[in-house]
């Protein structure tokens, strides 16, 4: 039997606050077994990417930097097994040496296994050839071109890097992936080569110059692999040749690691790190450049990215064979 509510009970009920509803707690994502819902098709993304790449091809841009006579054009042609880079002729006595470094870009389409690569090689003829190299690394001297990889050729002196090399790489490493190459490494003994590599790595560390692969790795396996490359292989000691030679009736094989590290360089640039070179350029160098320009100038012109203008158009004709 319920008793009737008194005035006191009514007053007390007004004083007691009503319970607040509990805030909704977001549900944690739960892994759903696709077998319960049927086949979704997430794993087809790899095939979609493959088909798109087969249809449109991929772009890859390489810059080669180094003094004349180090075999830059020969090595690039050997690396891609095609006549991509043109050999520059030496200066005649009557010709006037240019006052600044000129940039030449050559575009080609290379096809292998149904995959087309639109390759652009940016050469720097005249770099380091002038007597007065003062300020030849300044930003205004470098054309606005986005580059995925820069093969920087070092003279096989066996001593140390030249001041021009250090100053140029100090500026260049902020905007592009630098891969160091010791040119004409067959002029050095194995001991000289090993000591020179250690000396180069030490000089780069002292001068705060970063080279590819940089220490951006989050994956432990990638970090272990790239650390080994940084500490052992870099810079690559190579020999380039677009002709075959025989010694004592046997061919000299460039891919023999006992002779040079050309095979390591080729696998590193083309077979294992090509996509990473493109991603680091886009995600790190390009974004860093954009942020700096936005900070310095208060904005970027529409469509301007890393080092600005678009590369020369690449012809649709296949690249001729080197043979």
From TrEMBL:
Residues 312-323 have a biased composition (Pro residues). Keywords: Cytoplasm, GTP-binding, Nucleotide-binding. Residues 56-296 form the Septin-type G domain. The keyword Iron-sulfur does not apply. Residues 1-22, 294-323 are annotated as: Disordered. InterPro entries: G_SEPTIN_dom, P-loop_NTPase, Septin, Septin3, Small_GTP-bd. It is found in: Cytoplasm. It holds the Pfam family Septin. Its main location: cytoplasm. One of its GO terms (cellular component) is cytoplasm. One of its GO terms (molecular function) is GTP binding. Belongs to the TRAFAC class TrmE-Era-EngA-EngB-Septin-like GTPase superfamily. Septin GTPase family. This is Septin-type G domain-containing protein.
């Amino acid at each position: 039997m319920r008793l009737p509510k008194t005035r006191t009970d009514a007053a007390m009920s007004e004083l007691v606050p009503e319970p607040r509803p509990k805030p909704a707690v977001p549900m944690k994502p739960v892994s759903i077994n696709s077998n319960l819902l049927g086949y979704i098709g997430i794993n087809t993304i790899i095939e979609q990417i493959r088909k798109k790449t087969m249809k449109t091809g991929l772009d890859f841009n390489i810059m080669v930097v180094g003094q004349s006579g180090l075999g830059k054009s020969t090595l690039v042609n050997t690396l891609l097994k095609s006549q991509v880079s043109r050999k520059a002729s030496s200066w005649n006595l009557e010709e006037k040496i240019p006052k600044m470094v000129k940039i030449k870009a050559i575009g080609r389409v290379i096809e292998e296994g149904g995959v087309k690569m639109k390759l652009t090689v940016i050469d720097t003829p005249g770099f380091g050839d002038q007597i007065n190299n003062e300020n030849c690394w300044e930003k205004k001297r470098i054309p606005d071109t986005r580059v995925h990889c820069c093969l920087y050729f070092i003279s096989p002196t066996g001593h140390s890097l030249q001041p021009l090399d250090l100053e140029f790489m100090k500026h260049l490493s902020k905007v592009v992936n630098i891969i160091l190459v010791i040119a004409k490494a067959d002029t050095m003994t194995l001991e000289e080569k090993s000591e020179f590599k250690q000396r180069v790595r030490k000089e780069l560390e002292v001068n705060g110059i970063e080279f590819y692969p940089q220490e951006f790795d989050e994956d432990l396996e990638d970090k272990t692999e790239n650390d080994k490359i940084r500490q052992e292989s870099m810079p690559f000691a190579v020999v380039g040749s677009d002709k075959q030679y025989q010694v004592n009736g046997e061919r000299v094989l460039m891919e023999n690691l006992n002779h040079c590290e050309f095979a390591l360089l080729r696998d590193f640039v083309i077979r294992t790190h090509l996509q990473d070179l493109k991603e680091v350029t886009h995600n790190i160098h390009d974004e860093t450049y954009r942020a700096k320009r936005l900070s310095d100038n208060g904005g970027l012109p529409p469509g301007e990215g890393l080092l600005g203008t678009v590369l020369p158009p690449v012809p649709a004709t296949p690249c001729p064979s080197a043979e």
